[in-house]
Structures are given as C-alpha cells and as structure tokens.
Design goal:
This protein is α+β, with helices and mostly antiparallel strands. It has a single domain, classed as GIY-YIG endonuclease. The protein has three helices and three strands. The protein has a three-stranded antiparallel sheet, with helices on both faces. The longest helix is centred in the C-terminal third of the chain and has 13 residues. The radius of gyration is 12 Å and the shape is globular.
Length: 84
Amino acid sequence: MSVHWVYVIECADGSFYTGYTTDVKRRVREHDRGEGAKYTRGRTPVELVHKERFESQSAAMSREYEIKQLTRAEKERLVEGEGG
C-alpha cells in the first residue's frame, strides 16, 4: 500500500506552493533543481514547510485542493501548525 502526501513549500520569493506526491523528499529536490512545477522554476531555492500523510490518492488530492483554496493568512497559520 503506497502512502500519499500533500506538501507545502515556501519559495525564495516568499510564496507558497502546494502539491501532491508519493515521495516528498524526491519532489522537493525536483522543485529545488528547477525540475518541479512550472510555478516553482525561477523561485528557487524552496523549503518544505508542511506535509500531511494520506492513505489514498483521492483523500490527498482533495486536501491539496482545500489547501490551494486557502488565503495567504490561512496558509501561514497552517504552516505555523495552527491548522487550516
């Protein structure tokens, strides 16, 4: 059974990027090398600031969508550990 992750990285310009993966370390490395999402290219280096584990891809992708709908302030609270 594979594990699914939703992660938030903070880009060099201070913006947040939220994504889905089955391997957080690999994915963050890809973003850092400019091989990740188009949004993060040119916004390196990036730093992993939040991750959540899920047992199913559908649950993870639903949560990814929820996080992407949050305001900047709500994302900051999430990253600081206050929930989302």
